[in-house]
Amino acid sequence: xxxxxxxxxxxxxxxxxVISFLVYLGLELxxxxxxxxxxxxxxxxxxxxxxxxxxxxxxxxNKSFLERxxxxxxxxxxxxxxxxxxxxxPISQIFLDRLPATIELSILALFFSTVIGCxxxxxxxxxxxxxxxxxxxxxxxxxxSIPEFFFGLVAILTFALNLAWLPVGxxxxxxxxxxxxxxPNLILPALVLSLMMTAGVMRYSRAAMLDALSREYxxxxxxxxxxxxxxxxxHGFRTALTPVIVLIGFRLPTLIGxxxxxxxxxQWPGVGNEFVTAVRSQDYxxxxxxxxxxxxxxxxxxxxxxxxxxxxxxxxxLE
Amino acid sequence: xKRTLTALALSTALSVGALPALAESANPLSDERVRQAIAxxxxxxxxxxxxxxxxxxxxxxxxxxxxxxxxxxxTYAYDPDKARALLEEANWDEDYVLDVVFYYGxxxxxxxxxxxxxxxxxVGMQMTYRKLEGDVVTQLTAVPETGxxxxxxxxxxxxxxxxxxxxxxxxxxxxxxxxxYTPTDDQRNELIRRINGTADIDEQRAAFVDFQKLENDAxxxxxxxxxxxxxxxxxxxxxxxxLYGNAQFNYDxxxxxxxxxxxxxxxRILYTNKGPIQFFFHPWLNxxxxxxxxxxxxxxxxxxxxLVPNGPQLAxxxxxxxxxxxxxxxxxxxxxWHDGTPVTAEDVSWSIHTALKxxxxxxxxxxxxxxxxxxxxxxxxxxxxxxxITADGDKLTLQFAVLDPNVLVSFGxxxxxxxxxxxxxNPLEFxxxxxxxxxxxxxxxxxxxxxxxxxxxxxxYENYYGGTxxxxxxxxxxxxxxDPNVVKNAAAGRLDYGFxxxxxxxxxxxxxxxxxxxxxxxxxxxxxxxxxxxxxPD
Lengths: 319, 538
Hints:
heterodimer, A: mainly alpha, MetI-like fold, 15 helices, 75% helix, B: alpha+beta, Dipeptide-binding Protein, domain 3, D-Maltodextrin-Binding Protein, domain 2, Dipeptide-binding Protein, domain 1, seven-stranded mixed β-sheet, five-stranded mixed β-sheet, 16 helices, 20 strands, 25% helix
């Protein structure tokens, strides 16, 4: 397993290089540049072309695409992640500022969605065909199909504006010092995000559980006279966990990349929100680093899933 | 207070006669009758009433309503029959398809384009429309090469706005060698000289009136509507007589006297938006757009709601020589930066030197500073300093090489920066300096706490030379110029003050009992720029 893990990690390097180039190329093909964001056309009308060209030169935007990519890459390889184009803030500082907000929100949502999703999915499978199964199936379908921004807006309207139980958004307000202070701000976005994730986990775990329960070894277990809870949870649920872990694993990157839409709707100052601002302002160094960290998280999650799957299911062998 | 607003008489008399016929070219828009036909074909009254739900004012000139507006202009009231007649007279080719471009990304603009397309079709004109992508500024503002009269842009009509700090900004774009879409002529050039050649208000107005009359026929731009700025406030706020005005810039809004209802802890906190997201924007491009720009720094002069300088601020007095070429300021003795360091004339001098080398400098400020004696040499690197600036203690003297009619307006908007904190800055990377993470200003409020992307807290500066503000604190939540969270934050009681140009936001705010919305006239004119240059062959 050690050799397998090392080999997979080595493969990450060329993959990251290729992906970084593709992301940079994608940005290059996007219309406009950072200067256009800084100086919108209404204002740029009053400035001279020379002034705008000077600004582009100062930001290094007048260099060729390959030249800029090479400069960026060599800097990153030397551990210099660069500065935000628009404000000159070190990328590492932006990451350090934003990451806690995203991790806080994502971990809570991931935890709730996993526990609730697995529980409801298992109940639904064990009571297949019952009213509760139908109800949960409908709820799951709704959860999967309704866009999260809509859920978010309804939640704000209901719990923040109409009932005034919770804040409308944001993470920190003046005077907040502890997690307890900002808990009210965390509840709504975390609940909405976990609701969306719960639906998927529930559907997956129901299908996996049904599949596991139809297997012959379950019948054998019952024939051996094992109690029903042991048949369901030790023999059935353990096998059913494999696809669920894959699904949850692929959500791990949201711990880094954040949930763009939820962060936007709830004015949550996380990485996802920053990513949107960075793309809009064509802030190349910032977009690149957020994209790369998300990709890295995705690749690492994939590796972790493989290892976990092998640990849970002895039939899986890593080669 | 010494104050001499001097009348200057530099203009030459000009009789405004008939506009010489523009040269015929491959571009049908070079025919004045075609441009007039388009103006008659557009029913702006209906568009404003329906599409904009009354949240705009129909325009009959680029110059907004008020002091500078000429009387008796043709309003080009909707008259499709007249439009058809003019097109027939001009032998309009019905197969010609007008290429209309715009740069806004909102749905309202697309809706407007659809309506224009339909109204032009009604008089027999075809048009397509497209949003400019990529280097919008070049596509919009490229000028014909020297010695050529062939258009450097590929569109027929561009829909856009002109947001002016001073009236000259509306017409200086037609200047010889700078005009993207209007072939210049002697008469227009002479008018441009007149509006820029005097600081005398009456003479300036007379020149603007003549210009408007010329353009009323020529229609280099077809003015569509004046956009208004909507200032919103919660019912917790009492301005105590403070003025409403052009909130996008700096004016004497009386913030020191504002009162706000205390919260449950007895604190009088004003909540607003346009706080910093990643850094504080420097105020030399958009002088008053963000809350930090408004409260952290003072200007040499204060201005009224229309941005006309009306009194002292950092400068306790100022003087303009009779020829308008020497301007001197005496700074307040007790003005200090928020770290206690005195504000000196050297700070102002250093700021002008630096600003001239900052690429993103507001156009009006740039014109003023470039007009100072020796500024061009300094910019070109031929001199270490600007010869026309003398700083001595609290006294700053500026010697101008050419008259700048807007010098006082500029100093009503330009915020000097602290040399002792920014002296090491590379002007080309001005915005990237660490200073903008927690700037030290000299205005009525100082920064108490900044959590980037969460909030910024401003508290009254206890040693402010103008007195101490009555409200305890301003809390600014982060947002860009167009804040998508205005409505929900206002509904939740987290916005006591702000301004917007969004029609949808205004309607939602007006529906809230605890909010009031005040429309302010601003020089912000939306128009159709008519490309009258011969176009490049396909």
